[in-house]
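Lab notebook, bench 4. We co-purified these components, and the gel suggests they stay together. Before we commit to crystallization screens, I want a quick structural picture of the whole thing.
Request: model the full complex, all chains together.
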Amino acid sequence: MPEAPVADWVTIPDLHRDPFPIYERLRAEGGVHWVPAVGRYLVTSYEAVHETELDQEVFSANERGSLQIRAMGHSMLRRDDPEHYLERKAWQPALRPGVVQRVWRSTFERNAERYLDELVEKGPGADLIWDFAAPYAAESLREIIGLHSARQEDLQRWSQTLIDATGNYADDPEVWAKGLRSFDEVDAALDEVLPWHAANPNESLLSQLLRIPDYEMPIERIRANVKMTIGGGLNEPRDALGVAAWALLTHPEQRRAVEADPSLWNAAFDETLRWVAPIGLYSRQVTRDTELAGVRLPAGARLGICILSANRDERVWEDAARFDVRREVKPHLAFGKGVHVCLGAWVARSEVADVALPMLFERLRGLDVVPDAPPTIAGWVFRGMTSLPVRWRSVAEPATVVAAPAAAEQAAPRIAIVGAGPAGCFTAQALRRRFPAAELEVLDGLPVPYGLVRSGVAADHPGTKSVARQFDRLFQHERVRFRGNVRVGVDVPLDALRGAYDAVVLATGMRADRPLDVPGDALEGVHGAGRITRLLNAHADEGEAPSLGERVVVVGHGNVAMDVVRLLARDAEGLGGTDVDDEAHERLAGAVRTIHVVGRSAPSAARFDPVMVRELAGLPGVAHRVHGAGLEGIEPGKDARADAVRGLVAEPSSQPRVEVHWWFGLSPARIEGDGRVERAVFRGADGEVELGADAIVTAVGFAADDECLVEPGAHASGRVEPGLYTAGWLRRGPRGTIPDQRTDARELARLIADDLEAGAIGAGRDGLPPVEGETDFEGWRRIDVREQLGAAPGRSRSKLRSRAALLEAARDATIPLPEVERLETATEGAGLPVTVLFGTESGGAELVADELRRGLAGRAAVEVVDIADAAPGDLDASRLHLLVCSTYGDGEVPTSARPFLRALVEERPDLRGVRFAAFGMGDRSYAKTYSRGSELVAEALAACGAERVGEYGRHDAGGPVPATEAALEWAEGVLAEAAAPVA
Ligand SMILES: Cc1cc2nc3c(=O)[nH]c(=O)nc-3n(C[C@H](O)[C@H](O)[C@H](O)COP(=O)(O)O)c2cc1C
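Here is the predicted assembly.
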């Protein structure tokens, strides 16, 4: 029998660029070749590929020295039956077609809507792959697997680096190093969620896996299979979506056909996979001497199964290189065949063909490629678009949005919101807007509201705490009630609550600190970061603060870790104007001289925001040392996190009071000590590192505690069932900032409106009768006054530190309360026509706008417009515009203001005759970018010819004056100046 012909003319770079002409020649020359550049036999004809897939005994998936096994561990993809069969069966329950339709399809719809919105916000020129397909596929996969401990961005990074390592035929050490880092990160993320899934059954893959009867998958196999699922499960839908979109955009006649006949979306999906299979090549190994396509293959021969080629075999498909959605249906090989046929096929089909493609083409009217930015495509092991910049003519509203007034007119449900933290309060705010007549009751286990705003946000970030002011206003509405000191699940069973309200929203968050899970993590002297933050915020249930001694090790590189390091490194003087608990701060931080802050990633992959590191770099009396950051290979200016870490040592501090040592690339191994902490031991690439410590603070995330009423993160849409909903961290898992909660709350209000409209929930229940010991909003106002009056010099308040003290103050009728006006009584005035145009991220500017409407009543006829709903062409020369806009990111406008700003800059409308005044909301601690967002809009307005009048107002969220007060004072000044010429 002849030996396989040698194709020494084939090179890997050519394959990567465009494998199709190479494959065409290989197929013409027989279909099985020895390719020295790849070190494998490439199998390229449909028939030969098919044959290998049907005989796993001869063509084994269990390749010795497989790159995939090295990169991801030994997954079922590299095993043969019966082992493969067992693992495959265990992986299946969450991926069955019925489950995909029943459970995941709505997830895909929600995610597609969300990432399309983000694409639209980026504006024409955005990249369909990286701004839509990739985050959409990653977030959907994250939810299906149940990896609540990770972000979709993590999955994208992991998938790419693991895939790169799997295809690392060139043996590049850098590629291996990145792959290994992701390998460890996936394992850590799994360690975090598996116990939780074990305790909380849900629909996710991990949870289902843990309850297969009579089978327990060993942890190493779970890890390997999850990595394989992240590798293939992300890029397959992403690349199918990207290539399908590109194909349709470049074949207008077929696009019209598909848009006219939605049943063709599935055909478009299959034809895309045939045309450019996302998983282009995988490996097999021959177990004994055999023959394939007429040539000899020796035992042990390594094969590359070329799906990209087999799917274009001209003996099976006519004119195979042509994309044609109407071609006769024949089985393509993109999902494999035989026992290894892809388990995620139903997921990919629903994700791409049922949801993302139709929604994309329906919403982005006139979608098109950008003429001067041609799309790029590459790869042969995995092939997909590497960029696809797009533009569009207009954007259609999502079909699922229910108009607010319709729902509002219909009914007035009574809704209980459990948890008065930011998620609960934003939910109440969004519900109040959607159902102005609804009765909303916000319950909290503490006698005080505001959850993490009061007890989780770092005391020295008062700007972030200022969001409480808008919640204070919320509770002044007649139909919004605060009911404190009521613990649902303890004082009132959840069932009783559900019986008393038309809908219940659980927003109780996640309170427990996730343990390190290494030997010694329960030794005395190990503390959770959440507890430390609560102590510094005088949380009523925490008791007395411990001393942390001289040497503290903080484990974790997230923003919570940064908060802890900063608060421990600051002295009492550095806390001027805050509401820190001085006694707790002195006990915790008084003796601290050395802080080690240790994380497992390199700086560029760390979870901290660079701005947090920059803030630490600027702390007086603090010196920084950086270990193992590996910054040499990263050019300055290319990576904000790496730059921030570099900045730590840019200006050495002389005679520092505290030294902070930053360690990168280290994972905790164990904590040692005789009865209490003496040292922490970490493992890194160069072996173990031992750090002496008097205390250890773990900042590696949060977990549910025993009182949690539902499994956090298990109901990602926010609906447990009609009538029971989740918000905040209970909905998403312990991720998300305060502004994120506001966005989510609006979505949840829409969902509840949908349920009401569909008749899934009703209206008219009576609510919960009084609960013994409950407190109300008046009670909180008394506590508030007492805490502010009792503030020590240089502090904004002194918080009452026990439940008893809080309850006593809440009931003390002798505490004088300032008058407040019920908000429903406010009336609009007549007079100068004024438009307040607000741009907000977390709601503060909206509150200011509402306040201006009330405060200016009588002197002006005020309308309030969200800048997100406005276009420059709406600006009217007969009105005075009051622009109230905050700043986000690094001196940027809020997300909601981006389209308006972009329209000003790109379209340059003629705004001569339009008059406006500007009020910037920001935080002075962002020195260089203080209130820059408002300036960007004001400058763009002026550049279009609009005239700015009056003083430029500014508000510092970290300062003592409420934004509403500052804004009203500013607006009165502006009006006085502006009124005369108009009159
Ligand atoms: C992530 C983040 C980034 C911010 N960046 C800036 C900034 O660069 N400059 C600034 O002046 N304020 C900045 N701020 C402060 C906000 O602008 C300020 O809190 C404002 O009052 C928020 O108003 P809003 O609720 O209407 O969005 C930032 C706040 C956050 C949470």
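The longest strand covers residues 832-839. Worth comparing against the SEC data before the next meeting. The chain has 34 helices and 36 strands.
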